[in-house]
Amino acid sequence: QVQLVESGGGLVQAGGSLRLSCAASGRPFSTYAMGWFRMAPGKERVFVAAIGRSGAVRWYAESVKGRFSISTNNALNTAYLQMNILKPEDTAVYYCAASFGSNFLNPSDYKFWGQGTQVTVSS
Predict the structure, then answer these.
(1) Which of 12, 54, 92, 104 has its CA 20 to 30 A from that of 64?
(2) Please, what is the Cα angle at 100 between 119 and 46, to 5 degrees?
(3) Model pLDDT, residue 56
C-alpha cells in the first residue's frame, strides 16, 4: 500500500507560480514512479508529468513543457510539481499517483492516488 497526500493548491493569477507537494508513505519511495495528473471540470483526467524511480527520467505533457517541472526528494518521500507561467487553462484538480509499472503516461498504470488539490488560475 502507498498513501499519497497532495498539498499546495490554491488560487493564483495568470503568469504566477505554485508548487504542489505529494507526501508519500507506505512502501519505499524508490520502488515506484510518481506521476501528476489533472482533471478540469467536465473533462477526463489527463497526464501532466511523471518521474521514474531513479529520478533520472522525466516526462511532460506538451501543454506544460517548459513551464512545469517534476521532482522528488527521496529523503522526505515527497514528490513536487513546480508550476510556472500558469494559464487559466491549467485550472483543474491535480492528483499525484504512484506507479509500479512502466507506462507512465497512462492513468491505468497507476495503482495509488492522492485525494487531489485544486488549482485555480484567474485571468
Answers:
(1) 54
(2) 30
(3) 84
